[in-house]
Amino acid sequence: MSHKTCLLGIDIGTSACKLVVFAPDGEALASRTVAYPTQYPKPGYVEQNPDDWWNAVCRGLNDLFAEGVVSAWDIAGIGVDGQGWSAIAMDAEGNVLAPDPIWLDTRAEAICEELKASVGSDAIFALSGNPLKAQYVTAKILWMERHLPQVFQHTNAIMQSNGFIAYRLTGAITMDISQGYGLHCFNMRSGRIDEAMCRALGISQHLIPEIVPCHSVVGRVSAEAARQTGLLTGTPVVAGGLDAACSTLGAGVLHPGQTQEQGGQAGGMSICIDQYCADARLILGYHVVPDCWLLQGGTTGGGGALRWFEREFADFERRTALEKGGSSFAFLDALAESVPPGSEGVVFLPYLAGERSPIWDSDAQGVYFGLDYSKTRAHMARALLEGVAYSLRHNLEIAESVGARVETLRATGGSANSRLWTQIKADATGKDIEVPGSDLATPLGAALLAGVGVGVYAGFDEAVDRTVQIKRCQKHDDSHILPYDQGYEIYRELYEQLKDLMKQNRRARA
User: Fold this and answer.
1) Which phi and psi angles does 57 have, rounded to 5°?
2) What is the rounded average pLDDT of the residues 187-206?
3) Residue 189 in 3-state DSSP?
4) HSE-up of 467 (CA within 13 Å, CB side)?
5) Which of 153, 191, 359, 411 has the fewest CB atoms in 10 Å of its CB?
6) Per-residue pLDDT tens digits for 375-420
7) CB distance 395 to 299 below 8 Å
8) What is the CA radius of gyration of the chain?
9) Confidence category of residue 3, pLDDT binned at 50, 70, 90
10) Mean pLDDT computed over every residue of the chain
11) How far is CA 414 from CA 8, 35, 266, 498, in A?
12) Three-class DSSP category at 402
């Protein structure tokens, strides 16, 4: 590999860190994935230790370089993406002071209700373009101040996941603009922090790092970081961005109307827009591409729901995979494909960790409906895939109702490897789906930011043209409209009928 032509993408995901070195044409030359734990200490609490992320980066990079396919000398730039809505309390020496309440954490709901009453939901939404919810960063900061005062008094900065890793690499304290959406004192029109709203919300502005463009070089790998990771001292590091936004770039979505369909641990979609367009049921943030926003729908039920099903109900498929080779998920696909569209009336609500957009209900719970003696595991497997597709359709319908233009979807994440699941999503939404050639769209997007930032590419169009190729296109089948319309109608009505009971059930066990 020629000297200084490769790009490193670091993806701080929900379940693991993925490190990928790409050639300038987008070919993945070497990769490592290192998992880390998630803690659930109390109902509503979902935590990770950011030091676990950094240790995973160090371990993964050392293993990657030890393989010998690429060396640190080959890397021209580094981009980091990460999960959103972190609230990492870091002191002046860069020490993490408390576990990070990640995007699934809802402990600060009571604080949200207080702020809505004192500041006003309409005023908060008008500035930030997002509803005030416990999963966002705003209330987590105030929760920390109230419940962890000894931690809070030593906090020098509240960091985001990718910003934290960039800090460990370079010593620079920054927040990229795509992560600004987690703060309700962030002006979504101007891309800057609003001092008046900081005061109204009670957030100390000095805790918020400098906001920078996603492709800007924020620093270079320090001697200490080089010692721990095996990287070369002085390698440029760009700010990076939100994982969903980097995944959107890695799928080649950078112009208005283009839409990414996310198929990782979480599900959802990101629609590229060049005009401000907000709706309280959705999520609005800046794209990692300048002068664009992403109107997003983020759901808790995506690949994580299928992993839950595989863990709890797929012993046979796991044994078959061990005996015959292959993947237990591929055998689950075959099982689900034996059932016709609509799962013969079985409907699944994929709310296994509450739900984000568009219903925003942390008390929502998973449900199987329509079971009888004739139903099998195959019905349950297909209904799960369809339930996730219905959640995608729900978000797309809301976006289109407020004027967003949605054309062909571009699928990313592990679920895009399933032809069946991709076809179900196409049929349930009525949208054709293109699948890019790499299922590494998220770290690729981070790497492309680095490539633009250090000059490997002249701009974002060149970066996408050189690296993103469409592997297949799956067109929606109009003959499946009726069963999916019927299933979707039940899906929507089930939640409306059960939401109060879900709340009672959840609170009774709190």
Assistant:
1) -60, -45
2) 98
3) coil
4) 35
5) 153
6) 999 999 999 999 999 999 999 999 999 999 898 999 998 899 999 9
7) yes
8) 22
9) low
10) 96
11) 20, 16, 11, 31
12) coil
- Cis bond before residue 358 (omega within 30° of 0): yes
Is the pLDDT assigned to residue 438 strictly greater than 80? Answer: no
Q: What is d(CA 14, CA 121) in angstroms, rounded to the nearest whole number? A: 29
| Closest to 141 measured CA to CA, from 85, 94, 79 | 85
pLDDT of residue 445: 97
State the Cα–Cα distance between residues 110 and 212, nearest whole angstrom: 32
Distances (CA, A) of 286 to 3, 25, 180, 187: 34, 26, 8, 11
pTM (2 decimals)?
0.90
70 near 30, Cβ under 8 Å?
yes
For the chain, how far is it from start to end, CA to CA, in angstroms?
56
Q: Is-contact 336 387, C-beta < 8 A?
A: no
DSSP-H helix ranges across 68-160: 109-115, 121-128, 137-147, 149-152
Q: How far is CA 479 from the centre of its chain?
A: 32
Structure tokens at 380: 């349950």
Q: Tens digit of pLDDT for each residue in 317-352?
A: 999 999 999 999 999 999 999 999 999 999 999 999
259-263 vs 88-90, strand pairing mode: unpaired
pLDDT given for residue 265 in this prediction? 79
Element (H, E) at 261: strand 259-263
> 443 in helix, strand or coil?
helix
Paired with 412 in beta bridges are: 262
CA atoms within 13 A on the CB side of 299: 31
Residue 294 pairs in a beta bridge with: 272, 285
Check residue 105 and report its DSSP letter. -
For residue 17, the number of C-alpha atoms closer than 13 Å in the C-beta half-sphere is 27
The pLDDT, as a whole number, for residue 266 is: 82
Tens-place pLDDT, residues 63-76: 999 999 999 999 99
> 321 CB contacts (<8 Å, ≥6 apart)?
327, 328, 330, 331
